[in-house]
Amino acid sequence: MNDNIISKYVYQFISSKNENLIYSSRSNSILKITKELSEFLEEAKQKSSLLLYLDEKLFQLFKHHKIIVNKRDDADFLLERQFVEDQITFSNSTIGLVLVPTLACNFDCSYCFEEGKKAVKMNDDIIEQLILFVKRHKNAKNLEITWYGGEPLLAFDTIKRIIDKIKNEIDLKLTKHSIVTNGYYFTNEVIDYFKINTLNDIQITLDGNKERHDSIRKQKKTGEGSYEVLMNNIENILEKLSDTQLSIRVNIDKKNVDDFNIIYHDLRERWKGKKINIYPGILRIDNDSKKALSSESLSQWETFDLYFDLRKKKMIEGSIFPTLEYHKGCCATVLNSYIIGPRGEIYKCWNDVSDETRIVGYIKDEKLSNPSLFYRYIIGSKFYKDKECLDCFLLPVCSGKCAFFHLRNLYEDGKYNLCQCLQKSPYLLNRCLEHFYYENTDKVCSYKD
Ligand code: SF4
Ligand code: SF4
Ligand code: SF4
User: Fold this and answer.
1) 86-126 pLDDT, tens digit each
2) Whether the predicted model's global pTM rises above the 0.90 cut
3) How many angstroms separate the alpha carbon of residue 23 from the centre of ligand 3?
4) Which CATH entry fits the domain spanning 91-373: 3.40.50.1000, 3.20.20.70, 3.40.50.880, 3.10.290.10?
5) From the CB of 97, is ligand 3 less than 6 Å away?
6) Model confidence pLDDT, tens digit, residues 256-309
7) Best substitution site from 249, 351, 374 to test ligand 2's pocket, by max atoms within 8 Å of Cβ?
8) 154 Cβ below 6 A of ligand 3
9) Which residues have any ligand 2 atom within 6 Å of their CB?
10) Residue 447's pLDDT is what?
11) Could you say which of 135, 338, 391, 438 is the most buried, measured as most Cβ atoms within 10 Å of its Cβ?
């Protein structure tokens, strides 16, 4: 009696060197096999009783790599995966706060969500409510804060007041402290403050090379570009906040994608040996109907091509070969993470900030004002609610879909391509897998007859 089958998480292909490779996403391993064995395994997929005829050594090898599994094993794996996902979702030991002390900004970027919105600043009443809101999370032990805007440093006084109150009135460990800023107001005064109130991460955005950046990130009032000011401020940060990880996001769309290489090498040369992470920020600009990306934005597969190339050149972090890590979720998909706007309004996703229709509640209230949106983010966006993911052989190595766009597909007739897994791209899957196999043959187990 045979209780074994070929796992649904197995993928076979012929490499560019005309060799048969077999990949298992359950074990994340890749093996070279003979053509005959490959054909045998294909047949055994349809007729599992054939596995009884497999040589014992090979059988054990394939069991070890989860190429052959017990017939209930894949289903049990999905239950385990859902359990872990739910544990992450409902963990209450940490509160993650993205705080928006103001929606105002000194710049005027054409693609900004802030356009036409009121430049409200968080007042003392809201700060009091914020402290009470955090205290209501009785099981929490850790606090993570990210400053966001508008431009958060336009409300530097508010940031200082909130940090003071947290230090004096809240008994939680500040385990992560970050800021997403346009960088223009990162003055010496700000640096001195963050020397004491240490930041783990600073993210500053450039909109491409100097010419492009200055034409987009210009002062609202004077139209003056900001590139030189940012370069000086970044230099100052690197020198004086050397314990903080500085990330430079370089915004990219179809028009300037070829500039990234040059910008990257220029900046690396300028800040040689410094703790700085430079990466492409893919601009996701909607088309007019907000149902798909505009023609200016790189498509998902074009984005993956770019990542593949940059990772191959070791210019950006991340693995070309899949990794077997559980997706940690994002602010939108876990319970205890909130984005809090200047009026005390709560959002789940960064993209929702300042959109009245996307507010899920207010920090002063016990009850949510838009529970449907909240539950859609927390539960509705999960892989176990998504047939495409449940059927996908890459699920064990996938970091899931962006919940914001996934909800657009589900509820607003969106047509976004959302797979975040580099290897899902039809043009890249084989190249990613074989790149690893041929570069690291000592790290993989290969069967050769
Ligand atoms: S810097 Fe950021 S917040 Fe300010 S206008 Fe540009 S995108 Fe918007
Ligand atoms: S839903 Fe998408 S855009 Fe929103 S916070 Fe999560 S990953 Fe970011
Ligand atoms: S997001 Fe895409 S690659 Fe990932 S499991 Fe779902 S369908 Fe597969």
Assistant:
1) 999 999 999 999 999 999 999 988 888 655 567 789 999 99
2) yes
3) 16
4) 3.20.20.70
5) no
6) 999 999 999 999 999 998 989 999 999 988 888 878 888 889 998 999 999 999
7) 351
8) no
9) 330-332, 349-351, 402-404
10) 44
11) 338
Give 411 Cα–ligand 2 centroid separation in angstroms: 16
**Residue 399 CA, ligand 3 centroid: distance in Å:** 8
- Is the confidence at residue 442, as pLDDT, over 80? no
Q: How far is the CA of 395 from the centre of ligand 3 (A)?
A: 6
pLDDT reported for residue 119:
79
Every domain of the chain and the residues it spans: 4-71, 91-373
- Average pLDDT on 309-313 reads 92
pLDDT tens for residues 368-405? 999 999 999 999 999 999 999 999 999 999 988 999 99
Matching residue, tokens 């959109």: 355
